[in-house]
Amino acid sequence: MMLKRAMLGGLICMLILGSWIGNILYYQQLQLKEPIILKQDMTLTLKSDYAEMLYFNVLENKHKGKKVTAIQLPDDPQILFQIYPDQTYTHHVMMKAAAGLNQDELGAKLPLTIKEVLVYYNEGPPATVPIGEIRIEKASEKRVLDMVSASSSSGGAGDYMARLLEKVELDQVDVAVQDQLKAWVDVELNGVPVEDLKFPMALNNNEAITLSYHWDIPDDELDSEGLFQSFIRFHFRTQDGHAIVNDVPISQNMHLSEVQVRHLVRSGGDQQ
User: Fold this and answer.
1) Which pTM value belongs to this model?
2) CATH class of 145-253
3) Does domain 36-138 have CATH number 2.60.40?
4) N or C: at which end does the chain have fewer Cβ atoms within 10 angstroms?
């Protein structure tokens, strides 16, 4: 009887020890060797009268490990980014680096495409890190669309109603993201999918239009673990022949789920 109890006690101890070792190994598998700068796909349009915020998102271990202390743009090292915690996960924290950009500051450098940044750490040398693609452009100073109402949902859908400020022709409607991401969003103008519209479209002064969109972002695609800000872009032509581009912002994928974070860590930070 005593032998059976001893064997049972030993078995319980082995199970506890095995569970403890398993938890340690699982924890170690979810620890980053170094922070991940999430890749992005976005277009920023800068106006002359106020600054537009540029964000980078940095995934770090919650406790131990290497931390990002500063980020610099290759062409504009004088732009300073503030870094602060944005979202907390079980074993990680998403830090956000933010800086305000304005048209006067960048001036003749626009349009500008950023594909990598210089990252400084709390240990070791700085490194040049790819960040996807961020396009920075001058905004059109003339507005043809006057926004009347807007709504959006947490599920990635939204609607706009707008009125035309003058008589124009609409030459094109597109979404300002890379082609692969375009496959994840459906856009309709006046209830018709934009790919079925016939351009150019004649639009009258004070005419109302409706715009709707819906994102369907897959969790199992590595690109869905990147971040993207998007615009629906209207290409107009005025009666005197001038081309005008007006952008309408739409809901954006700016946060990752716990499942996406774990997938990203296990892939070694490979966002392709």
Assistant:
1) 0.68
2) mainly beta
3) yes
4) N
